[in-house]
Amino acid sequence: QVQLVESGGGLVQAGASLRLSCAASRRTLSSYSMGWFRHAPGKEREFVAAITASGGRTGYADSAKGRFTISRDNAKNTVYLQMNSLQTEDTAVYYCAANKSAFWDTSVQDTSYDEWGQGTQVNVSS
User: Fold this and answer.
1) Cα–Cα distance, 106 to 70 (Å, whole number)
2) Nearest of 53, 49, 39 to residue 108 by alpha carbon
3) Mean pLDDT of 62-73
4) What 3-state class would DSSP assign to 112?
5) What 3-state DSSP class applies to 5?
6) Dist CA 43 CA 30 (whole Å)
7) What is the pLDDT confidence band of residue 43, given thresholds at 50, 70 and 90?
8) Partners of 37 in the beta sheet?
9) pLDDT tier at 25 (50, 70, 90 boundaries)?
10) Helix residue spans in the chain (DSSP H)
């Protein structure tokens, strides 16, 4: 079982940037495709971005395209989410997740992911 730990959240003003990290322990992430999801109060959890195991392909939600970038460093066993031009509607708890079944996939479905971190809070003020 892989343990995922997110970090990098915080309180920022609209227009600022944050970089979230997702570090893994117990198992290497290099065989898994990875995703970022977020959950805002009163809303359902939603897909943000995903990356294949090799890092060769990525996928983004429409709300993230052009502003967010997902990347990974398999040598460091870490996945990142660079978030630029943050908006108040980006306020949420952000979770990383591992898809152990399909290393080639950038699934937008949370049911495709087997392991989840505990989340990191991102608050964007106006």
Assistant:
1) 11
2) 49
3) 97
4) helix
5) strand
6) 31
7) very high
8) 47, 95
9) confident
10) none
CB atoms within 10 A of CB 119: 18
Quick one: which of 25, 23, 19 has its CA closest to 6? 23
pLDDT at residue 2 above 90? Answer: no
C-alpha to C-alpha distances, 7 to 21, 26, 117, 119, nearest whole angstrom: 5, 18, 10, 8
For residue 10, give the nearest of 64, 115, 86 by alpha carbon. 86
- Three-state DSSP state, 75: coil
pLDDT band at 70 (very low <50, low <70, confident <90, very high): very high
Question: What DSSP designation does 28 have?
Answer: -
Comparing CA positions, the residue from 54, 30, 50, 64 lying closest to residue 96 is 50
CA 50 – CA 25 distance, rounded (Å) = 19
Q: Mapping DSSP to helix (H, G, I), strand (E, B) and coil, where does residue 34 land?
A: strand
| Assigned token pair, 41 | 């109060």
CB 71 within 8 A of CB 55: yes
Q: Strand 115-116 and strand 68-73: pairing?
A: unpaired
Is residue 46's pLDDT more than 90?
yes
